[in-house]
């Protein structure tokens, strides 16, 4: 009897059904619960930082105390670091990153859409984008300096090149999201090429474009320090670079926190924009 019950398909399926019911009963975590878990994790890491530094388990050269970093932050606001207040450093860094990002979006999205629509245009741009995309910015930084000097142009161009590739490639991939049935239906209704691009291809590609913009913004912030190595007098990256030369770990950490803060702000802004522009994403 036991052997029959184990081998019978209906009887054998009962544990699987029970397991499926248990899985269905599990409620997904709410946004408040996820936020609470994140806050608890951050608080835990801060507590570990406090304990490790105050017990002397790590030398201040490698990991300064949190209050030392806060004092560096206060000194930076008052302009006692690098001779300029922190607001000036942040303003210049934001200008460079935001300007380069907007330029990459204005150029990269049309180029990516054109690459996705036209095989000929894809053949023209794809080899160059795929060649320089995996290169670290420091690899072509000397060429940028030689060609464009040490002014703001070279700094913005370096960040622009870092942002351009993910934006263009995301737009190219987004074109494939428009099904042939949608395109053929629009053509059957007499849609022109411009209407086809505006009302069929672009809305279908918008989710991928927004993901590419988020990635591009993140890459732009990671390139900031490299860009501000080019004879910069102000900027958070320049401040961090100068502090590292003098082994001021507290200023380095403070600069990292400032850069990370604005990176998180831009990330949440892009997520909010994604919810507003493509509210249907993830509902399938």
How much strand content do the residues show?
under 5%
CATH topology of the largest domain, by name, is MetI-like fold
Radius of gyration: 26 Å
Helical/strand content category: mainly alpha
> Whole-number average pLDDT?
84
Distance between the termini: 45 Å
What would you say the CATH architecture of the largest domain is?
A: Orthogonal Bundle
The CATH homologous superfamily name of the largest domain equals MetI-like
Total domain count: 2
Q: Please outline the major beta sheet.
A: none
Low-confidence stretches: none
Instruction: Report helical residue fraction.
Output: over 70%
Q: Categorize the overall geometry.
A: globular
Q: So what's the CATH class of the largest domain?
A: Mainly Alpha
* Count of helix runs: 13
Give the SSE string: HHHHHHHHHHHHH
Number of strands: 0
Task: Please outline what is shown here.
By secondary structure, the chain is mainly alpha-helical.
Structure description:
- With 284 residues, the chain is mostly helical.
- It has 2 domains: 2-54, no CATH class; 66-277, MetI-like fold, CATH 1.10.3720.
- It is built from 13 helices and no strands.
- The protein has helices spanning 2-7, 9-25, 31-54, 66-77, 86-117, 119-132, 137-148, 152-175, 180-188, 193-222, 224-227, 236-245, 249-277.
- Helix 5 packs antiparallel against helix 6.
- The two termini are 45 Å apart.
